[in-house]
Amino acid sequence: MELSERTKRVIAWREHFELLPDDQFLTIMHTYLGMIKTPYNKQKLIEALSSFLRKEEIQKNIVSLLCTQDRQIVSCVSFISGMTEKKLSALFADTQLASVLHERLVNLEERLVLFRLRNERDGVYAVNPLLDDALAPVLSLDTLFACKNVQPVKQNGFYVLTDALLASFVNYVFSHPDCCKADGSFKKKTVDDLSQLYTTVPALSVLCKAFCELSLFHQAEKEISVDWDRLLLFSRMNPLVRSSYVVAASSGHLSRSDLRVKAQSIQTLLSSIPEQGLSRKALVRLCQVLQELQGSTLSTGRFATLLRNSENVSSDFSFASCVDSCIVMGIVQQVGQDAKGEALYATFPDALSNAVSVSDVRVMEIDASGRVTLMPGLSLEQLLPLVQCLSLQQVDVAMTYAIEKHSVFRAFARGFTDKTLLETLSRFCRYEIPQTVRVSVEEWYAAYTSVMLYKGYVLCVSQKMRAVILNTPELSCHVVKELASGVFLFDFNSDEEAEEVLQKIHLDEVGVVSLANRKTQVLPLPSLQEPSVLHIEPSFSDSAFDESKTVLSLLEKKLASLSTTSDQKEILTERLERRIIVSESQLNPDCVRFERREATGMDYVGKMHIVETALQTQELLEILVDPQLPAVRGYPLEILDKKTSEAQVRLKLASGEIQDILIGPALKIRKTKLPLDFN
Q: Rounded to whole angstroms, what are the CA distances from 577 to 47, 107, 292, 574?
């Protein structure tokens, strides 16, 4: 019979205690159960501890004594699988909790709220399954993002990823292939030009970087080119998916599979931000949480793993840069301020659209001078052919372009003829194209075609074979142009394709075609799943903290009424301050188990014992090496050369630095605890 998930968790919790070192095990049992008769049976003591924790009053007190930081940590462990101290450190890196996170985790283990799974190498935390029902009402990921909007403001409406703005920027880059430096940044002249056209150049700089990462733009040494085929595929994506890919790509160099993963996280982020908004720090934390939640849904098969490893692309990706990109491009915009004056951001509504607008509305007007006024209403897919033959003049609600000789010549180079260009313009024009414009386009095309430079496969045949070429469908369909009588330009993509076609019509005697580069097939960006929206509804109730004050007040009065020695009172007071005591039964002075916490001078065995027990319980060590210098504080990671006289303890300091200290010469080694603020 297969065990339920809860039963498996209870078994894991019991195993955690069974495998504890005897000293640590007895300390916990003395703290919660009181006097322990020897010899003792571990299984019976664990069962007694389970009975103690199942009492309704005990569970209520444990929960009421959880402060905001406690609830944030426990919520992360509860809702995000595989949560380790390292992952928690990343989540809370920008908060006050970061400096005391390790001490908080040790404290939550002392209070029996959390425990570490013994079969996990990285120290994965889990919530005590006996407290599931009691904790359920107070645990929520909302506690990570609580931001009260005390001063609402209206969104400014600037959103750089609208169809019209995207099309205008593509037009500018197409018209100015030399707009970027070798490092991808805009030239000074480009910045000046864009400043005249747009309200924010930084947003366009981020957009340009993203388009290069998405291969929508290709950057060479001296110029940047537009990949119109990829842009066409990109234009068919809905605005939410587009925004997600642009943000992910703008924030670092990623492999194709990683790009999809990050874009999926960004899509969920944009869909999950509440209307009242979140601070920048909360947005970064939300990104990290969504990435962790999404991680368990990714493909983990052998083939998927090999594929990710084979790409081996180094990444400078960061969620902070993602959030900054969203803000700069107007994808998220300020909607208010919190009580501390920090800006709160929410997703701009247009960025959440799941539809691609396609209509045949006629929104364009062309005057006799070639000035084009383009009103809103067309999709990016519809705008791309238009902007290939226009020149950007002014950016506003109604875009202003011009039909100029150099813009029309660029369109001809893209394969337009005078007829196809005029047809493209006519499709969305409210009125007939002025005759002067038509004549100009036709004259420009005549001038353009008077001198042509071709590149491709050319076949020269006799007049007799000319008729064969023109009347053979398998070959005539590949003819681009007859350059002269019997001289044909073909659209073959490779020498292999040319040879294969010629052999089919028995023209294999022309010989082997010289090598040519094969045109690679353009693939669309990977599709994204529908976002699993994380509904965030911050709660600002202080009732739980009122309950904790009541519980602590009763326990403090009970302790004050007891007859204790100074040492007993000190230990019980410390436990009460660290919220380990949740019942009056734990305030029995006779149950206090004294523990050696300090060793000095020549007591090598004592100092080694202090280090070993601190390593087991993950307590903070304070080591005095030189009386003229302050003591070194850090958490023990391991003991080096333990069996020699040169034994050292490896400490992780508050700064993150690793330091090795000789145990023998140390003047004093003491176990200590950081003070915790439960307000």
A: 27, 11, 33, 5
State how far the alpha carbon of 297 is from the alpha carbons of 81, 232, 254, 301, in Å: 11, 30, 20, 12
pLDDT in tens, 417-475: 999 999 999 999 999 999 999 999 999 999 988 877 777 788 887 887 787 777 777 77
For the stretch 118-155, what's the b/e string if a residue is b when 16 or more beta carbons lie within 10 angstroms of its beta carbon? eeeeeebbbbbbbbeebbeebbbbbbbbbbebeeeeeb
Contact 553, 529 (CB under 8 A): no
Q: Rounded to 5 degrees, what are φ and ψ at 661? A: -130, 130
- Please tell me the predicted confidence (pLDDT) of residue 252: 79
The model's pLDDT over 208-234, given as tens digits with 9 standing for 90+, comes to 999 999 999 998 877 899 999 999 999
- The position carrying tokens 């366009």 is 204
The one-letter code for the residue type at 243 is: S
Percent of the chain with pLDDT over 70: 90
Ramachandran class of 432: left when φ > 0, alpha when ψ lies in -120 to 50, beta otherwise: beta
Tokens of 207: 């957009």
Tokens of 65: 């004594």
Give the span between the Cα atoms of 185 and 182, in whole angstroms. 8
d(CA 181, CA 578): 59
User: Which amino acid belongs to residue 449?
Assistant: T
The residue-averaged pLDDT of 18-46 equals 88
Q: How far apart are CA 481 and CA 498, in angstroms?
A: 16
SS3 state at 663: coil
Mean pLDDT, the chain, integer: 85
Which ranges of 367-434 would DSSP assign to H, the alpha helix? 380-387, 405-413, 418-427
Confidence of residue 267 (pLDDT cuts 50, 70, 90): very high
- Give the CA distances from residue 677 to residues 80, 301, 340, 346, 618, in Å, rounded to whole numbers and listed in that order: 25, 45, 20, 32, 19
Cα 56 from chain centre: 41
Tokens of 613: 């027990």
